[in-house]
Amino acid sequence: MYIVGTHRSGGTALGTILSSVPGVFYAGELYRFPFPIFDPGDPNRMCSCGLPVLSCPLWSGVRADADRDPQLLSELRAGQRRFEAWRHAPGTLLRSLRRDRALAHHAERMEQFLRIVADRSGATTVVESSYSALRAMLYRQAPLGGGKVRFIHLVRDGRSFFGSELGPAYGTHPGPAWQRIRPAIAARWTAFHSAAIAFCSRGPDTYLRLRFEDVLRHPRETLTRVQEFLGIDLSEAIARIEQHRPFEMEHICSANRARLVGTLTVRPELAAPTKLSRSNSALFWTIGGWLELALGYRPGTERAPSSG
Ligand SMILES: [Zn+2]
Fold first, then answer.
1. Rounded CA gap, 209 and 80, in Å?
2. How far apart are the CA of 192 and the centre of ligand 1, in A?
3. Cβ 245 vs Cβ 189: under 8 Å
4. How far is the CA of 37 from the centre of ligand 1 (A)?
5. pLDDT for 19
6. Peptide bond into 40 cis (omega under 30)
7. Residue extents of the structural domains in the chain
8. If exposure means fewest CB atoms within 10 Å of the residue's CB, which of 12, 13, 67, 280 is most exposed?
9. What is the pLDDT, as a whole number, of residue 305?
């Protein structure tokens, strides 16, 4: 199960909710493997279990299993650089149409790593929140042993994305500085969600679009749709949200920093969009307004910044 869209959309929360179901493991942003988590290795990166990732029993087990095939991690990294970087998107799309062998080999390597994560966690369903629609499409090239990849396109109000991107950048690899220029923030939100629709929305049984705000405000209705889409039982998770009980976060090492708390309680008040300054609001609506409206968001109803 692949969460597609953009960062800062609530993927960590949705992944944590889903992983409360037996047999489902939320693996986070798997594109960060092997670089930089395993290679060169980040001793300061913490897992939600409270241990550094490099000594966490689950992820060090994944590492040991991956290293049994001496080429796996190096080929995975080479394939990511060659096919998953957005500047290579036209070439990757062309290769996918041609059923290119090098691309198929990379997709098989992705599947091999995914399978190790599934085996180590004991899961039959792995949830990945790498967000990139280009990477999402590559899973379609993998055989997946007869199984199939399902996409949840998770959308969060573009105003909240914009407000959150203007805040501090976290992590050791926050991306190039130009991405934080204001027009680039609005353009990225628009482009990534457009790409998610273009690359992933074929077939009603493999694509479901959710607004994160609906998960927060109407958890029962929204998660019932997810339950039907994925064929898993979310009734206990829905009850937990409605009773404001926390979810355990198990071995999440590549996702939002909220993972470091170790538990997650769903807070409906985060659903109101961030209030942008007048000039930022004008900029955002000029670039992304058409998509914001198409996704069902409306002007007004903002909250003051700082609460999320
Ligand atoms: Zn851990």
1. 26
2. 30
3. no
4. 13
5. 96
6. yes
7. 2-294
8. 67
9. 53
Nearest to 4 by CA among 156, 136, 126: 136
* Residues in CB range of 123: below 8 A, 6 or more apart: 23, 24, 25, 117
Rounded distance from Cα 207 to ligand 1 centre (Å): 30
How far is CA 99 from its chain centroid? Answer: 26
Structure tokens at 145: 């042993």
**Which of these, 243, 65, 215, 233, lies nearest to 154 by C-alpha position?**
215
pLDDT digits (tens, 9 = 90+) for 247-272: 999 999 988 888 888 899 998 888 88
For residue 160, pLDDT over 90 is answered with: yes
CA of 124 to the centre of ligand 1 (A): 19
For residue 285, the tally of other CB atoms under 10 A from its CB is: 17
* Cα(179) to centroid(ligand 1), Å: 31
Å from CA of 55 to ligand 1 middle? 8
Average pLDDT over residues 34-54: 92
Q: What is the mean pLDDT of residues 226-233?
A: 96
Query: Ligand 1 center to residue 27 CA distance, Å?
Result: 11
Question: Token digits for 144?
Answer: 């997946």
Residues 6+ apart with CB under 8 A from 240: 20, 246, 247
2-294 to CATH, choices 3.30.70, 3.15.10, 1.10.3470, 3.40.50: 3.40.50
Candidate from 111-115, 219-223, 239-243, 254-258 with smallest mean pLDDT = 254-258
- Grade residue 174 by pLDDT with cuts at 50, 70 and 90: low
Ligand 1 centroid to Cα of residue 16, in Å, is: 14
Output phi, psi for 257, to 5 deg.
-60, -20
